[in-house]
Amino acid sequence: MAQLLKIPDSNAIAELYNTYGPALYGIVLRIVYSREVAQQVIQDTFVKAWRSGANYDETKGRVFTWLLNIARNTAID
């Protein structure tokens, strides 16, 4: 999955979304308590991941953890 972050391709980010989106959505929903806001946070999370995927460093953690941190920070903002 990490290699998908390095590819600036909509199909790659779609695959990441299909893999991690539902789990991230559930976590974000517990933070924001609104389905609409949670959906927006998840969308923003994957846009940010797509734009900064080249910065992902496999040695610092798993893809899910990296995406979760982006989602959590986006939800808090």
Summarize this structure briefly.
By secondary structure, the chain is mainly α. It has helices at residues 2-5, 10-32, 35-52, 63-76. The chain is globular and about 30 Å long.
Care to describe what's here?
With 77 residues, this protein is mostly helical. Helices cover 77% and strands 0% of the residues. The protein has 4 helices and no strands. Helix 2 (10-32) crosses helix 3 (35-52), helix 2 packs across helix 4 (63-76) and helix 3 crosses helix 4 (63-76). It is globular and about 30 Å long.
SSE arrangement:
Layout: H1 2-5, H2 10-32, H3 35-52, H4 63-76
Helix pairs in contact: 2-3, 2-4, 3-4
Run of helices and strands: HHHH
Quaternary organisation of the protein chains: single chain
Shape: globular
State the helical fraction: over 70%
Radius of gyration over C-alpha positions, nearest whole angstrom: 12 Å
Q: Strand portion, in percent? A: under 5%
The major pleated sheet works out as:
none
Global structural class: mainly alpha
Number of helices, counting only DSSP H or I runs of 4 residues or more? 4
Calculate the mean pLDDT score and round it.
91
Give the N-terminus to C-terminus distance in angstroms: 27 Å
Uncertain stretches? none
Strand elements, count = 0
